[in-house]
Amino acid sequence: MRPSKSVVVFILFFTAGSGTIVNDSYSDFTEEDNTPQLDYNNPRWCRSLSLTNGEVTCHSTRGRAYRSSLGTHCEMSCDRGYRLIGKRLIQCLASRLWSGTAHCRKMRCFVLPLIPHGRYTCTRGFVVDSRCDFTCNPGYRIEGEHSRTCQHGGSWTGAQPDCLDTDPPKIKCPLSRIKVAEPGKLTARVTWDPPSARDTADKSLEVILVGQEPDTDFKEGANIIQYKVYDQARNRATCKFIVRVEVRRCPELSPPMHGSLTCSSDGNNYGATCDYLCDGGYELRGVSSRVCQFDRNWDGSPAECVATEIKSDVKTASALLDQFYEKRRLLIVSAPNITDPDYQLQNIMIQKSDCGLELRHVTVIELLGSPPHETGHIKDSLLNSEVIEVLRQVFRISRTYFSMVLLDELGLDRERFITTASCGMKRNEIGSSSTGTCVIK
User: Fold this and answer.
1) Domain Sushi: where (predicted)?
2) Cα–Cα dist 162/406, whole Å
């Protein structure tokens, strides 16, 4: 029995090796019907490999024709820009399957962040070898890399750039202007609206005035006003305009012969007033003052200073004083005689106009001596004795000592002196002190 059993086993092995299907009731043989038989000579033992976006490199000891035969080793690699997912090395197994699988996934770099005040454009998005070029908004420039490239490892070259504000702000000044000086002044009050400024980046700008503030008095001539504006990046812009103040002037007036002019303000500017004054012994004929008009002409006509006709042969003091009322002042000098030292000294001072004494508007009446040899005269014209007596009584002038009485245009006794006026005598003032200082205007 044993030998026959051995034969049976041999037959089963042979038939299995030949691939013949045997109908047998033994379950062990039935299960092995689907098990492939190892055949190193079959060049297509495992399925053919392909790798999308990649390459398969296989090695077999039997040659290139046996790329998928049993025992073949294959190396998987992906194209540039793709990453291998799975096994890199696989082998064709007896099970007719490869020892692993793999596929190629497209590589990507992270999404680049946006840059303030700028943007970027990419050639192929965020995949490998894509280049992203950076540009800045108008008024800004790139600081740093102008472009970045997605590398094979999934990282970007370089660093993220910045957009720097290099564009200065824009500012527009008011228009230049001319203003006529106000009447009687050499200045004009000028105002204007503040300048408009804008910037490509900043809404808040620092505007600085260089020059005189608006709504103030500007002097004659050209006044340069400048504004500066800075943005947050300290870029600067400037603008200028001119405020010109024009003083309208009349032709200069000539003083009258035997007289002078006293003018307000600058003398001949619009609104200035010039008063005519006549020297002693002369009186004004014509207008007393003239005003410079806006059209650069003086109003009225020139005045004249004509010799004053003083009648000294009048019979009464009132008739004499009426000739000076509201016209001239009177200085009455009295002395006991012509040899009085105070009189002589004062007479010399008056003749020489010492201490600034000016007699253009003052008429001097001299009363000398006592009756019956008393004399009174205005320059070379003698006064009536009755007129002399009334003047002494009305103004309480003694014959026994030297004295002076200053009368104003209204005939009022303004100052009285019992000694010589030694100094301080000048025009346009009236005053005295305990030392006998006399000032005549």
Assistant:
1) 56-106, 107-165, 248-307
2) 92
What is the spatial distance between Cα 189 and Cα 113, in angstroms, rounded to a whole number?
57
CATH architecture of 54-105: Ribbon (2.10)
**Residue-wise burial string across 328-340, b where 16 or more C-beta atoms lie within 10 A, e elsewhere:** bbbbbbbbbeeeb
**CATH number 3.20.20.220 given to 118-165:** no
C-alpha closest to that of 277 among 379, 358, 184: 358
Cβ atoms of 422 and 345 within 8 Å: the answer is no
Per CATH, which fold does 317-439 belong to?
Glutaredoxin (3.40.30)
User: What does pTM read for this prediction?
Assistant: 0.47
- Span(s) in the chain for CATH 2.10.70.10: 54-105, 118-165, 259-307
Q: Strand 170-172 vs strand 196-198: parallel, antiparallel, or unpaired? A: antiparallel
The CATH class that applies to domain 259-307 reads mainly beta
